[in-house]
User: Fold these one by one.
Assistant:
Number 1:
Amino acid sequence: MNSIKGSWAALITPFTKNDQIDFAALERLLDMHLTAKTDGLVICGTTGESATLNFDEKKALMKAVTAKVAGKIAIMFGTGSNDTRATCELTEKAADLGAESVLVVTPYYNKPPQEGLKRHFKAVAASTSLPVVLYNVPGRTGCNMLADTTLELAEVSNIVAVKEASGNLEQAMEIIRRAPTGFTLLSGEDALNLPIMACGGVGTISVTANVAPRMMKQFNDAALNGDWNTARAIHFKLLELHRGLFVETNPLPTKAALANRGLISDFARLPLCQPSAITLELMKKIATGLE
């Protein structure tokens, strides 16, 4: 059931100056990932500004992506929210929208206890037959899902992986060390991709893969094949970019880097806004030539 591994991009959602989804720009981004042979795309995740997308927009995005890449690139749909019922309802629709798996973030703002997290994710998993990937990103949600909680949830048959973005390498190692057969960990913290993969991570769900998809694919392929000299060299070449893409709130630096290449306009949806001139210049400096 779990074939979720390799280089996944947490895809941005491009917007026009009129605050509409820019489907022409989306087409260009998908062409780039097809050329790079990206293994998978996460649609409507954090980097895709999912919190500001309504259902019709999410449906339209999924339709456009599946029409372009289905059968060529795996598609994961971000269905998580801070409302368990709403998350279950969207997750129930995921397969019909073309998703092959779902990414479910820990509920934000509510700050649930660990028991609440267990009940939330078990309810979500029960609402679908699709593979469920947990998403732990306490810097966004104000809630860290502990290793013991993740490992209990790993016993649910269709909860198959966790995107671990806590920045806590020890926590990631504990999950990998004790994970049951069939449950895996993917790095959600680009600056830690190399050590996480070296400890047994099976892939990355990456912001950097928006900007350097070819290199992220090469990094993952090298790591999964045990070619650590190549993986290390690519990781260090990308390290400044990994860090730079978070000098402002994600995805603003990513949009700046892609706008510099003429692939998108650098518009974000409020309460996010356009990246600063400083960020635009920084991306010209550190993202040029890294594709």
Number 2:
Amino acid sequence: MPDSPTVLVLLCAAGLLAGWVDAVVGGGGLIQLPALLLGLPDASPAQLLATNKLGSICGTSVSALTYHRRVRPDLRTALPMAAAAFLGAVGGAFVGLHIPKSAFNPIILVLLIVVGAYTLLKPDLGSVTELRHSGTRHTSYAVLVGVTIGAYDGALGPGTGSFLVFALVGWLGYAFLQASAKAKIANFATNLGALTVFVPQGQVLWATGLAVGAANLVGGYLGARTAVRLGSRFVRGVFVVVVSAFVIRIGGSVLGVWA
């Protein structure tokens, strides 16, 4: 647990915001994980990753259910992608136990810049669903997206939801709302996959993780309902804002502007 109730309250506030952002466009880990890093300075990297996963799975579970009930995503694509994401996250979690987190910031920064620029240069991207592939090829590409991003999520994770949404919109041709619905199902699977590695090794800080997770759950529920009500145009706008904020934050860290 944190040293003071104030720190715990701030961590829960970060979890609430992370859950909302994650439900709308993904990337809540870029809010929640740094907050845990600041609030739990004595925790090991593996403990921070594991506790972040526990907090995140609470939000992704409720947002995935909310999207499923209100958007009705095609499970013929979502479930194979989620299964592949689960396996990728299991493998990635084993890797994440040994790779320093600092090595990932430059990679995340480049990916976010590419994602943000591509979205801005294509104003109609994700406004409607126009699938670019069909049948077995469509499912195979979805599985490839799942296992690749799942492995990244297991190893580190921040930005996973945004990368899933972008891959589903930019490569497979979904509208932002449909992409967010499928991304939440896959993101739940990646969190679960990582926890199957972290929990047996005793890396989860349960009290803190459950407190942050409760806040993340509320944020995830509110975020999913907001996205469903306001539609793909709103989701796209939030996506651009969130990705831009992440670029500034991570870019500043890489360049040494702030710690």
